[in-house]
Write a structure and sequence with these properties.
InterPro entries: MATE_fam
Distance between the termini: 68 Å
Family: Belongs to the multi antimicrobial extrusion (MATE) (TC 2.A.66.1) family.
Largest sheet: none
Organism: Eleusine coracana subsp. coracana
GO molecular function, one term: antiporter activity
Helix content: over 70%
Order of helices and strands: HHHHHHHHHHH
Shape: globular
Keywords: Membrane, Transmembrane, Transmembrane helix
Strand content: under 5%
């Protein structure tokens, strides 16, 4: 081989090697992206659907009047939204625990963690109920108009059932997500969203229930999603991880509370 041919041969080596790596890299990226979106896609749909329900309720309330719009917006995004953020954080403690248990093939522990999370979040749901009950008085003390504060307090009281729905539904979503079964939640909430639009229209405009109808539509839509997901998870959809109610759920509750509360405050 002469010097010119040798130089030409060497100059082509990186292209041949790179050409072999790039298709392999693309395949790996594609496979990893599919795994990521199997979890992230349904989770994003679930969040968007639940957030969209609140937006729909506020949009319909806007047709009733400025005060009704302000009352529903404050009750949904401030009062209920603050508690939702806290419960989201508390439920996220399950991500670490359930992820470790699933990786270690201790599948039955996922059901135990779910029950512990339900116990802890239901207790906090009771403790945080005054944020709904006394929201009107708090807003008045903060300088908001009396009539608006009274209306917000009324809507917040109607939304109180949503507080306990958060406590059960959010840990259930994490439980399914850790098993890569959150596609069930994605499908359920995607179907529940148009149902919520119809319910809101019926209760607020057809039956003329006003802000009460807006709150009840939210309660019913979230409750419908909860019932469907409970039916799936506890009715045979997760046979490896759900073995029924267990007394072990009451064990190590103190440590679970610490982890959940810290996550809740962080969020």
């Amino acid at each position: 081989m002469d010097s010119q041919s040798a130089v030409h041969f060497i100059s082509e080596l990186p292209d041949r090697r790179g050409g072999g790596r790039i298709p392999g890299l693309r395949k790996e990226l594609w496979e990893e992206s599919k795994k990521l979106w199997e979890v992230a896609g349904p989770a994003a749909c679930t969040r968007l659907a639940f957030y969209g329900m609140g937006v729909v309720s506020q949009a319909f309330a806007g047709h009733l009047g400025d005060r009704e719009l302000a009352a529903v917006a404050i009750a949904v995004t401030v009062i209920s939204g603050l508690n939702l953020g806290f419960f989201l954080g508390m439920a996220s403690a399950m991500e670490t625990l359930c992820g470790q248990a699933f990786g270690a093939k201790q599948y039955s522990m996922l059901g135990i963690y779910l029950q512990r999370s339900w116990l802890v979040l239901l207790i906090f749901a009771v403790l945080l109920s005054p944020t709904y009950i006394f929201s009107g008085q708090v807003l008045t003390a903060l300088g908001q108009p009396v009539e608006l504060s009274r209306e917000v307090g009324l809507v917040s009281m109607y939304l109180l059932p949503l507080q306990f729905c958060y406590a059960i539904l959010l840990p259930l979503l994490k439980y399914l997500e850790c098993q890569r079964k959150n596609w069930v939640a994605g499908v359920t909430t995607t179907v529940a969203f148009p149902v919520h639009v119809v319910l809101t229209w019926l209760l607020m405009h057809y039956f003329r229930l006003g802000v009460f109808g807006a709150a009840m539509a939210l309660n019913l839509s979230w409750g419908l999603s909860l019932v469907v997901l409970l039916w799936y998870a506890l009715g045979g959809g997760c046979p490896e991880t759900w073995n029924g109610l267990s007394a072990f759920a009451f064990v190590d509750l103190k440590d679970f509370v610490k982890l959940s509360a810290a996550s809740g405050v962080m969020i």
